[in-house]
Q: What sequence folds into this?
């Protein structure tokens, strides 16, 4: 793994001046991931916050070749580009090593792009797919997605008299990708930058497909202040809501192992999307939520061989 001094000398491949919201977790995630590439890289991005805010014609914030894809096919497009590259390399028309990465939000990854992603991983393309998980379809109005957590209020899972936000647990996409038996899978957070960059380095170095799921808070959708992004992401890790782990060649490893997790309410309370859970009468929902986290944490530790 590269040292901090080495990383500090690498070029930032996503320039400032883009139109993402102040405090957007997606831009933090992208910058950290690309610092781990350390090689020429071709970027693809599904339609979403990241794409529309970094490439308003005729401008671009990308210092890399960039391909805009439809909502559902970023993985398919980049897998095709990677296959073309491999063919040209076999013919001797391209000599240098090039890396390929696709970025997508949770809407374009957990849901509408899952078939495309699964196919690219199963076929074994030498590429990295990164999901910047902000927990909803933020670009189109904060609608629920498969990544939206239990109890969160969105425009399509509103909190009211009938229901207290989304009634289902979020889909565990990281474990779904691990089930594809690909060389490298990781779950990371923008709050733990060194961990994310190291995981990015491993993903780009892997021979074959790799997947990284990055927690990337959205101040607008999570109803937090723009300067609270990193702190909220850190609490997600410290409470067990978003464990940091990796699966390398089938070996599961837990990267953050506190003696004791912080209470889940420490993560939920600062966010406006969970405000209704703290109203009188909803105590049982908080207890249920904590129980879910405890169960998931215990199962993950067992899978990682942690006592």
A:
């Amino acid at each position: 793994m590269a040292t901090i001094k080495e990383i500090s000398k690498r070029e930032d491949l996503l320039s400032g001046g883009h139109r993402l919201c102040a405090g957007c977790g997606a831009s933090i995630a992208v910058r950290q991931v690309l610092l781990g590439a350390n090689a020429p890289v071709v970027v693809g991005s599904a339609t979403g916050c990241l794409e529309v805010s970094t490439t308003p014609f005729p401008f671009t914030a990308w210092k890399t070749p960039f391909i805009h894809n439809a909502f559902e096919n970023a993985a398919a497009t980049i897998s095709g580009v990677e296959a073309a590259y491999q063919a040209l390399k076999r013919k001797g028309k391209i000599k240098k090593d090039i890396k390929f990465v696709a970025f997508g939000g949770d809407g374009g990854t957990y849901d509408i792009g899952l078939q495309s992603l699964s196919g690219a991983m199963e076929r074994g393309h030498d590429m990295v797919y990164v999901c910047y998980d902000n927990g909803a379809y933020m670009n189109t109005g904060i609608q629920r997605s498969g990544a939206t957590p239990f109890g969160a209020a969105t425009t399509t899972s509103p909190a009211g008299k009938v229901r207290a936000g989304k009634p289902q647990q979020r889909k565990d996409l990281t474990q779904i990708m691990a089930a594809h038996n690909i060389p490298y899978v990781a779950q990371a957070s923008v709050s733990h930058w060194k961990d994310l960059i190291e995981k990015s380095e491993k993903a780009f170095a892997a021979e074959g497909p790799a997947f990284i799921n990055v927690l990337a808070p959205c101040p607008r959708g999570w109803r937090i202040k723009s300067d609270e992004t990193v702190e909220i992401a850190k609490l997600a890790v410290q409470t067990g809501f978003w464990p940091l782990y990796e699966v390398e060649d089938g070996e599961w490893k837990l990267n953050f192992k506190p003696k004791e997790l912080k209470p889940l309410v420490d993560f939920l309370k600062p966010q406006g999307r969970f405000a209704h859970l703290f109203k009188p009468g909803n105590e049982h929902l908080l207890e249920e939520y904590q129980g879910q986290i405890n169960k998931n944490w215990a199962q993950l530790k067992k899978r990682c061989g942690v006592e």
Summary: The mean pLDDT is 97.
